[in-house]
Amino acid sequence: MSRRPTVFRWAIALAVVLLPWLEARPAEAQDTASGGLWSWPQPEVAEALSYLRLYPQDLALRDDYEPRDPWRLPLVDSVMTHPWRMPIFLQDYSNHVVWRPGPNRLGLCERAAALLPDQCPPPHIPDPLSAPSLLAIPPGLSDEWQSFIRLAYSGIRDTLQPERAIAASDTSVQELFFRQAFELVTADVLEVYKTADELDSVQQAQDRIAASMVSDADEVAWCAKLHDYAGLIDRLIAMLPHSIPHRVGGNQLLRIDTPYGPILLGTDSTDLFTGDPAIIIDPGGDDIYQLSPQRPGHPRLIVDCAGNDVYLAPGGFGLGCGYWSWGLLIDKSGDDTYKGGNFTMGTGWFGVGALIDLGGSDSYQSDTYTQGAGGFGIGILADSGQGNDRYSAALYAQGFGFAAGVGLLVDDGGNDTYLAGGKYGDDLRYRDRFISLSQGFAYGMRPHFSGGAGLLIDQGGNDIYTSDIFGQGGSYWFAFGGLYDADGNDRYIGYQYAQGAGTHLTAACLFDRAGDDIYSSKGVSQGCGHDWAAGILIDAAGNDRYDCTDLSQAAGSANGVGVLIDGAGDDMYEAVSNLNTQGYGNPRRDYGSIGLFLDLGGKDRYLGPGADSKVWLSRSLWGVGIDADSLWLNKVHSK
Predict the structure, then answer these.
(1) What is the C-alpha separation between 43 and 55, in angstroms, rounded?
(2) How far apart are CA 317 and CA 120, in angstroms?
(3) Nearest alpha-carbon partner for 349 in 229, 236, 440
(4) CB neighbourhood size of 518 (10 A)
(5) Spatial separation of the C-alpha atoms in residues 364 and 351, rounded to whole Å
(6) Contact between residue 17 and residue 50 where contact means Cβ atoms under 8 Å apart
């Protein structure tokens, strides 16, 4: 990747400008919700930027402004140097997220693994597992269930041979690295509120830890097995039998002891599962799972085929947790309740973890680093039913990507509710607000190492997203956070650094494909890039409403790029401040900032600097707004 001496690409010939636009338009990306192919509105963007005497390529940011650490995702480099690729990537990725892969299609985990840093190579051999296990399984189970259990057991055996669990007495560089990383992400949540001195002490400790981790990076083989784990989980998902695992003598819970932990076979009635099993297979009944936290390096598989089940993990590290290994929980049907602490519900922490729920209206309640969170690994929560689901978490959740990690939450439909925050106070800025860092959010440890990719994809339904500080398609420090909602009348509620907000050398995007939507926030939101960052909000269709206080609705700040594009519909824009909203940029600090506001259809109303069927420039002449009908949307959108 080329290195250029300026923040923005100022002197690039027009032929060079056009090439990335062509590369950024995948020929086969079809939008499943609205039936059309969405593409970045090239002519309209070019026309708007011409008022600022800029080219579309000038929206690009340098990806080498700080020294490159070993955990930078190639995707982050791509979207920073080509910000317009963000919405196209989100649309294309959402069209290929499938829980049961078909021929020549990557599964959930393998597709996420493809985004990992370059230093995490794919497996050298096609099948990461050795010969299938000869595990003796009681009679009565079908051949397909026996094959499924043997595959899972072989995966557990191969993970633990040689034993990979971390001993408490281990003082190796790898163990130190692991413990330091854990301390790094949990230091902020030990207390709900902190004094100024406590905050400063935590920051200093984090700086020391992060610097030490960077120096030890070459000696730690943290990613050697991630692709193997991802491939195994996707094989298990693909092999999941459609039938119910009936067996002879099925009225009592059956335990099979193995060297790597017990295998439990449940009944059709209500079962209570406790302890530390390696595998649980349950055919039905309203069951209760209250298992011990997974030990580092030890996998766990749970498959529940039917019933309204309750999953409890108050001690954390469970319910689809890849904790220096892999973990998989599949619930095939029922209105289920998931309650957990930290590192639960589709969490990859130096490993790969996935929670797959295939039906029902479900409830997910947990604390920190949860509900599709990945750090030095992959974490996925996929709810593929059409139920009305409820997601509630405090921090680092609902599609969260930490360093060298990919976190994904994907929901296939239903009127869902997402809530993040409400527990850990944002003492640095507000005593009465809470940090969220959730809902398609990615986070790096400034200034030491890059963040990952945090993605939230909702395929349909009238959804409500609520976060506080940092969330809803946002990112911080060389990371990529994206929220994609394909359809439905949705509501987005945030306070600050939300709704397509990139902060500090990063890139972020919120893309809503269709529906009458409402966006509400205070500031640094709704398409805002702050401090060498790009933030984009795109709403392709619908009668939408946007309200904010300041530094929002296409605002560039401190060498940032802020973009808001609304495709069609009769929209309402409200901004308290006329000075830095609705297409705001400024020439301050080196090369200045860019704000680009486009409304491409409908009869719109404005409270702020904008106006229907007008072109306006910010007072600094570095921001532009255009409200005009566009043939672009009429060609690509149908309802």
Answers:
(1) 11
(2) 24
(3) 229
(4) 15
(5) 22
(6) no
Residue 62 has what pLDDT?
82
70: closest CA among 387, 537, 620, 450? Answer: 450
DSSP 393-435: ESEEESSEE-TT-EEEEEE-SS--EEEE-SSSB-TTT-TT-BE
Token couple for 469: 């500080």
Distance from C-alpha of 262 to C-alpha of 149, rounded to nearest angstrom = 12
508, 510, 513, 517: CA torsion to nearest 10: -170
Using DSSP, state whether 605 is helix, strand or coil.
strand
Which pair of tokens denotes residue 449?
A: 């190492």
Phi-psi region of 531 (alpha: psi -120 to 50; beta: other; left: phi over 0): left
- CA 290, 292, 297, 299 dihedral sign is negative
Question: Global pTM?
Answer: 0.89
Q: Which two tokens stand for residue 142?
A: 């079908």
Contact 282, 271 (CB under 8 A): yes
Q: What sign does the CA torsion over 344, 346, 349, 351 have? A: positive
Q: Which two tokens stand for residue 482?
A: 């994206």
As given in the structure block, the two tokens for residue 153 are 């057991």
Beta strand residue intervals within 262-403, DSSP E:
263-265, 272-275, 279-282, 288-291, 300-304, 310-313, 321-323, 326-331, 337-340, 347-349, 352-357, 363-365, 368-370, 373-375, 378-383, 390-393, 395-397, 400-401
Backbone angles phi, psi at 219, to 5 degrees: -95, 0
pLDDT along the chain (639 residues), means of 10: 33 29 33 53 85 86 84 94 94 84 75 90 52 68 91 92 48 63 65 62 71 66 85 93 77 88 93 96 96 93 97 96 95 97 95 96 96 96 93 97 96 96 85 92 90 96 97 97 97 97 97 97 96 96 97 95 94 95 88 91 94 86 83 38
User: Strand pairing partners for 391?
Assistant: 364, 418
In whole angstroms, give the CA distance from residue 58 to residue 65.
Answer: 16
**β-bridge mates for residue 203, sequence order:** none
- Sheet with 435-438, strands from edge to edge, namely 368-370, 395-397, 435-438, 469-471, 496-498, 523-525, 550-552
CA 110 from chain centre, in angstroms, equals 15
Q: How far apart are CA 451 and CA 442, in angstroms?
A: 6
Continuous H helices in 99-225: 108-113, 143-160, 173-186, 196-216
**Beta-bridge mates of residue 269:** none
Is residue 434 within 8 A of residue 425, CB to CB? The reply is yes
Question: If you write DSSP's letter for every residue of 549-599 in order, what string do you get?
Answer: SEEESSEEESS-EEEEEE-SS--EEEES-SSSBSSB----TTT--EEEEEE
CA distance 239 to 175: 34
| 637 closest CA partner among 492, 476, 514 | 514
Q: How many Cβ atoms are within 10 Å of 479's Cβ, its own excluded? A: 34
139 vs 23: CA distance, rounded Å: 56
